[in-house]
Amino acid sequence: MKVLVIGGANVDVKAKTAAPHILHTSNPGHVQLKAGGVARNIAHNLARLGVEITLLSIVGNDAFGDMLLAHTEKAGVKTQAIIRSTMATGSYIALLDEKGELVSAVSDMGLLLSITPDTINKNKGLFKANEHIVADCNLSDETLVEIAAHATGRLIIEPVSVAKSQKLKTLLQFRKVFLATPNLDQIEALTGSREIATATKALHAMGLENIVIHAGELGAYVSDGTSITHVPSQAKTIVDVTGAGDAAMSGLVFGLSQNLPLAKAAIIGQELAAKVIASTASTLE
Predict the structure, then answer these.
(1) Residue 202, class by beta-carbon neighbours within 10 Å (0-12 exposed, 13-18 middle, 19+ buried)?
(2) What is the pTM of this model?
(3) Phi, psi (5° rounding) for residue 88?
(4) What is the pLDDT of residue 129?
(5) How far is the C-alpha of 159 from the C-alpha of 23, rounded, in Å?
């Protein structure tokens, strides 16, 4: 099974405090620089699982861009569709507390707006060669709609954040989407409710065929429009939560690529998320 992943590739700067975080002062801790980005992490994980992966993204023609390309290629991802830009490579800066939980983050992903509908149209041959198309909402509304226009296979959307998840509404006005993976905050932003049955009913009515709601320590809730299945979290140890959602999406897509039912694919997602958050890495290494 072949998968095309489209969206963010950036450097992650992760700062973890050694003790409970204190506002408005310097906190002793440890800082790491890692290859990251939602789409890049998903592609990396899937390649590690043996799936044939192509990544369509953009990085700067700078040292960070060189690092991202080298790390991504080493994981086994096909990178020929990654664009090099004169702009700086995107970055994500995360502040984690001593337990590895996210305190705050800043995302500088403006470079991704350089992936336009024209970029997608120029790469339309990639869509015919891949059965699953995964796109993240770091992309513009117009670009997501163009992706949907070319996606003959299963279209899977990662909402990314509360603000960016609103792009899913625009996309669903254009066509139905096979699957999206919002979290609890995102379903509330999209539907006005955090109640699973209410939110999934509203999302299905918008044209979302399948939903996997990532609910942190509660695991995931899987809805195909006829029933809702709870998949418990597999996490035992939390070292760093960065990349947990990307890992859960990766396991989900891997399971679907193996023709597993959606709920069983979601179990693999929870297993991979548990593995990632139990280490300082944001991806499967």
Answers:
(1) middle
(2) 0.94
(3) -70, 145
(4) 86
(5) 29
CB 111 within 8 A of CB 60: yes
| Mean pLDDT value across residues 191-202 | 97
Choose between 55 and 107: higher pLDDT.
55
pLDDT of 285 > 90? The answer is: no
Give the whole-angstrom CA distance, residue 229 versus residue 177.
20
Judge contact between 144 and 136, C-beta under 8 A.
no
User: Which are the contacts of 173, defined by CB distance < 8 A and separation ≥ 6?
Assistant: none
Record the tokens describing residue 233, joined without a space: 């979290």
231 pLDDT exceeds 90?
Answer: yes
CA 279 to chain centroid, in Å, comes to 18
- Which residues, including other chains, have CB under 8 Å from residue 68's CB and lie 6 or more apart? 9, 10, 11, 35, 37, 40, 59, 89
Q: What is the largest CA-CA distance in the chain?
A: 53
Amino acid at 114: S
Domains present along the chain, CATH in parentheses: 2-9+38-87+110-277 (3.40.1190.20)
* Residue linked to tokens 């499967």: 284
Residue 157 has a pLDDT of 98
Of residues 111, 107, 165, 176, the one with CA closest to residue 141: 165
What's the length of the chain? Answer: 285
Instruction: Report the C-alpha gap between 3 and 43 in whole angstroms.
Output: 9
- Work out the angle at residue 282's Cα, subtended by the Cα atoms of residues 31 and 101, and round it to the nearest 5 degrees: 65
Laid out side by side, the sheet with 10-17 consists of 29-36, 10-17, 90-96, 102-108
